[in-house]
Design brief:
Length: 655
């Protein structure tokens, strides 16, 4: 009967109401669709939160909602479970009051994904038969991006741009599962250009003063997945104007290099083989450098157009300073190569690799950072090098005028880490080190006199915090490069960490590298997951008074690129000095981020740090698989590949 009294037992709390109250919303679970279990008193038992249910029941009685002390998202979740559609609509509207698809004050713009190239086997007119090696980008490259736009309005949605045959070809084996062909895997920037990597092609965008960003060029379809990319937007060569750019992409042991013109035309320079997997790819001046953990260096010299491979000690870290490449190796030594002079030994025509320093304990050099003091260079009077080792030691060595000709001298030693050091950064004001235990960060303030590091009063401890970044168990080879957390920024400026807590998330936490304080939180404007990111400083326009600005570029699983104004974020934070600031995600924020994740661990229980067995091999190869939802995440985040990271050879399995 409509007037019957219904007794409910919700999570141990008893409620009594009428049948009419429970059934006036059709198709809700309370209208008879819920599984009816009864307790010992005959009351209908519902295993849900009684506090939230009391709010829902009050809405059913009076159509009134009391949100005092209630989480809006939790209440919406319960209302969705019970199927209380009118309440869900109201709560969604409340959430939309603070959310805009145009982003917040830090949002700078968005770039739509380019149309992916078609594999040669699907092309109607195979261009491979053409005798010309010049290719032009498609007509849509003339579309300009306006700051107020979130995507080109005349561009087809990503799912409409792919042929069914292309989707079939891009689908990988049953073991790996489906690989999204428009998922951004890496973002690299140089001057006013950015290079975006997708699984099977790369593309370039260029920023113009008045018209914004333009899609300039896309590579042909590459059969193997792209592992690394490098961009040089300022190629200096003899007898040519400075208008050409270079883009390189590595796939396994192969490196493909293109020359790009400003009008979008391109020429493939060549395909080079390092014979082992390429772990790092970058430019030093006009020279392209490929490094492998197994002790091989590949160098393409722009003047001689020559590709040369050099065998060295297994490489565990690297850094660049001016025209110099510094290598930290497994034997505890630091070596350097002058890429500008490109010296070759007369007897065998090999690269001239010079030993600069050897660690007193002969521990593996797992992180490197070089600081060139003002008014000097690596070939000048004063250089400073900070490095970390596999034993957790951080050392600072210096080359000063009194020791010229005798090599750098040990200046300071810190033994605060109990796990291998994965990153180190020596800047004008701070020394920052990171170890493999949940990216534990230690920072020190650096005292300088006339620009040079000083012992009076010396480096003093500043902060200790963690940049927790949980790894996907089955990740692609490019994941660590595309999600490198930093620190980002020039050594004489404020540097930041980019914290991506879980693999599939639409949020990034931006934090100061010096003390871990939160600068801002970036949330994707279209709720798409952030797949890759980088920080890049773009040059100011030619107008008087225009200064370079720093931006965060985020690449997403739907192929879009979103841009965020980091310069404004830092200025806003500096203006609010004195106010208490958060660091990384709070426990409440972290629990929300972990909603769709399953956690596993590399560690041996109950050990806190990784077992020694997983740390025996330096710079071990990355195991690449495609994970399925819900995510299974490795709780130890010691994998990384750029800027002197440590590479343990581990395989993580789901529990």
């Amino acid at each position: 009967m409509p007037g019957d009294v219904i007794h409910l037992n919700v999570g141990g709390t008893r409620f009594s109401t009428s049948r009419q109250t429970l059934t006036w919303i059709q198709d809700s679970l309370l209208s008879g669709r819920i599984l009816s279990l009864k307790d010992e008193t005959g009351a209908i038992f519902i295993d849900r939160d009684p506090k939230l249910f009391s709010v829902i029941l009050n809405f059913l009685r009076s159509k009134d909602v009391d949100l005092s002390g209630i989480s809006l998202s939790a209440l919406k979740h319960e209302a969705e479970y019970f199927g209380i559609t009118p309440l869900v609509r109201r709560l969604v509207l409340c959430e939309d009051l603070e959310h805009s698809s145009c982003g917040d004050v830090l949002f700078h713009g968005s770039l739509g994904p380019p149309c992916p190239p078609v594999p040669e086997i699907l092309e109607k007119k195979p261009v491979s038969q053409s005798t010309s090696n010049i290719t032009r980008s498609p007509q849509h490259t003339t579309q300009a991006h306006a700051r107020s736009q979130s995507m080109h309005v005349n561009q087809a949605p990503p799912d409409k741009m792919l042929l069914p045959e292309l989707l079939h070809v891009l689908d990988v084996s049953d073991v790996l599962g489906y690989l999204n062909p428009l998922k951004v895997t890496m973002v690299q920037g140089h001057h006013n250009w950015i290079c975006i990597s997708y699984p099977h092609f790369v593309c370039c965008f260029r920023m113009k003063d008045s018209t914004g960003w333009h899609h300039i060029w896309s590579s042909p379809y590459m059969e193997n997945a792209v592992d690394r990319v490098a961009l040089n937007a300022k190629v200096v060569a003899q007898n040519q104007e400075n208008t050409n750019k270079m883009v390189a992409a590595s796939m396994g042991s192969f490196v493909q290099l293109w020359l790009i013109m400003d009008d979008g035309s391109s020429r493939e320079i060549g395909m080079f083989d390092l014979s082992v997997s390429v772990d790092s790819l970058f430019f030093i001046g006009s020279q392209l450098v490929a490094l492998s953990q197994f002790g091989k260096i590949g160098v393409w010299h722009s003047m001689t157009q020559h590709w040369q491979i050099q065998d060295v000690i297994p490489i565990t870290s690297y850094d660049t300073a001016g025209s110099f490449l510094l290598l930290g190796c497994q034997n505890g030594s630091i070596y350097y190569i002058d890429m500008q002079k490109f010296p070759l030994r007369m007897k065998d025509n090999d690269l001239l690799v010079t030993e600069l320093y050897k660690d007193p304990s002969e521990d593996m050099v797992t992180a490197l950072s070089v600081y060139l003091t003002p008014k000097t260079s690596l070939s000048g009077n004063w250089i400073e090098i900070a490095y970390g080792t596999s034993s957790g030691t951080v050392r600072v060595i210096v080359q000063h005028p009194e020791t010229v000709g005798h090599g750098p001298q040990l200046f300071q030693t810190f033994t605060v880490h109990r796990s291998p050091v994965t990153k180190v950064m020596l800047s004008e004001k701070h020394l920052v080190s990171v170890c493999s235990e949940y990216n534990h960060v230690r920072t020190w303030s650096v005292t300088r006199f006339r620009g040079m590091i000083s012992t009076q009063p010396g480096s003093t401890p500043l902060a200790s915090f963690k940049i927790v970044s949980l790894d996907e168990v089955e990740e692609q080879a490019s994941s660590s490069t595309g999600n490198d957390f930093g620190p980002y920024g020039e050594q004489d400026d404020q540097q930041v960490f980019i914290q991506k807590t879980v693999p599939e998330t639409d949020k990034l936490f931006i934090r100061l590298s010096s003390n871990g304080q939160r600068v801002c939180v970036i949330s994707s404007v279209d709720n798409s997951s952030i797949a890759a990111f980088c920080v890049h400083e773009c040059e100011g326009s030619n107008r008087m008074g225009s200064r370079p600005r720093r931006y965060i570029f985020t690449g997403h699983t739907n192929g879009t690129i979103q841009m965020w104004d980091l310069t404004t974020a830092l200025e806003m934070m500096n203006k609010s000095d004195g106010e208490p600031r958060k660091g990384g995600p709070t426990p409440e924020e972290l629990m929300k981020l972990l909603d769709q994740c399953d956690l596993t661990s590399r560690n041996t229980t109950p050990s806190i740090s990784p077992a020694p067995s997983v740390l025996q091999v330096p710079m071990g190869p990355t195991v690449s698989y495609q994970s399925s939802r819900p995510n299974s995440i490795a709780m130890d985040s010691d994998a990384g590949e750029e800027d002197g990271n440590y590479y343990p050879d581990t395989i993580v399995t789901k529990i």
